[in-house]
Amino acid sequence: MKRRTVKKKERKLRIMPLGGMGEIGKNMFVFEYEDEILLVDGGLAFPDADMLGVDILVPKIDYVVENAHKIKGWVLTHGHEDHIGGIPYMIRLLPKIKMYGAKLTLGLLRGKFEEFKLTENDVDLHEITPDDRIKVSKYFTVDFFRMTHSIPDNSGLVIHTPIGRVVHSGDFKLDYHPADGKTSHLHKLAQAGE
Questions:
Q1: What is the gyration radius of the CA atoms in the chain, in angstroms?
Q2: Cα dihedral 62, 88, 120, 67 in deg (nearest 10)
């Protein structure tokens, strides 16, 4: 009698860039593990000169909309248009989601929501600091760390998952003398690799 071996279900972390890879703008990532999704950023891009009649470009979020029931949180790295500018367009297609971002980032996003006639009832905003750790869900925990950039309140992320850590630096510039005196948390970035 031949014995059958049953293969264990392989545990996979899926990382899907919906924009921002090989292009400038539309920065958005989907992190998916089993029945959970974590979103990072939601930017827009401006069209090329040959795209007549097109005002802005946003990430194609069909997969996100189809799997909206899996979304556990939306983390924002900073307040530039290419990272948050598409959110008011996309949020109408999704259920109310917990969104995490620094004070300035959320302030800029609130301004966009007012412009689009969205209210606090449409979103669930949570302010973080670069020292925060948030347990987004069963499978996703996020550590924030400060990275200097051309805008204050810029954060990098260490995303903890059941199969390991993912470092998402976001945009940054290494500036040892920033105008606000707040340098990058390079020690946290180094610790993430240990």
A1: 18
A2: 10
**Residue 2 lies inside a defined structural domain of this protein:** no
Q: How far apart are CA 8 and CA 13, in angstroms?
A: 16
Beta carbons of 29 and 39 less than 8 angstroms apart: yes
- Between CA 23 and CA 26 the distance in angstroms is 8
pLDDT tens-digit readout, 24-80: 899 999 999 999 999 999 999 988 888 888 889 999 999 999 999 999 999 999 999
- Give me the number of domains the chain comprises: 1
CB atoms inside a 10 Å sphere around CB 22: 6
Contact between 145 and 185 (Cβ < 8 Å): yes
Separation of alpha carbons 68 and 77, rounded Å = 21
Domain carrying residue 22: 13-192
Confidence (pTM): 0.90
181: CATH? 3.60.15.10
CA dist 41 and 188 (Å) reads 21
Contact criterion met (CB below 8 Å) for 179 and 29: no
